[in-house]
Amino acid sequence: xxxxxxxxxxxxxxxxxxxxxxxxxxxxxxxxxxxxxxxxxxxxxxxxxxxxxxxxxxxxxxxxxxxxxxxxxxxxxxxxxxxxxxxxxxxxxxxxxxxxxxxxxxxxxxxxxxxxxxxxxxxxxxxxxxxxxxxxxxxxxxxxxxxxxxxxxxxxxxxxxxxxxxxxxxxxxxxxxxxxxxxxxxxxxxxxxxxxxxxxxxxxxxxxxxxxxxxxxxxxxxxxxxxx
Length: 228
Description:
Blueprint: E1 6-9, H1 13-16, H2 18-27, H3 36-44, E2 48-54, E3 57-66, E4 72-80, H4 89-103, E5 108-113, H5 118-127, E6 131-136, E7 154-160, E8 178-182, H6 188-195, E9 201-205
Parallel strand pairs: 4-5
Antiparallel strand pairs: 1-2, 2-3, 3-4, 5-7, 6-7, 8-9
């Protein structure tokens, strides 16, 4: 990470006011940003926000809030200005968030990521060592912005903040044998935005060899968490 960047906690309304505009700058759209009053309320009740600044201009941020489990923080988003990506800023933001959590009594963190973004999957599962625990179909509804009209499918991951020894390991869950199918190009612009024009596949279970109770799992629900 560029040593000239400053990471600092954002707590007051004035400090948090930079985040909604920053969300719009990174992801587009305007209807789904977290408002300043909601940021203030959730931070006051055990949440947190950290901003990364370059000469006073915000270029990265993480925001999370308390959950029904007193030792678990839900990290709602991490955003990095496109000009500052691939410099290690995302990792530093998550590590700073981890340090904040441990200092405030949180020992685990959860968040969701877009499975179509390979770089995010690599960061979450390989670099940080978080574990995929659940797949959600159209989790947030239609978001617009860089998501276009695509459903907002998401993977929930859990990050153990104490057992850091797992960081860097590939985690593959046991499951049915899979085969790959090409995702229909129903929203080509949104798919290009979310994958940086990379080709991708989604894995679905092979048909059973013996008659079983009728079942029609959607391709997205059967997404393999295999990341190699």
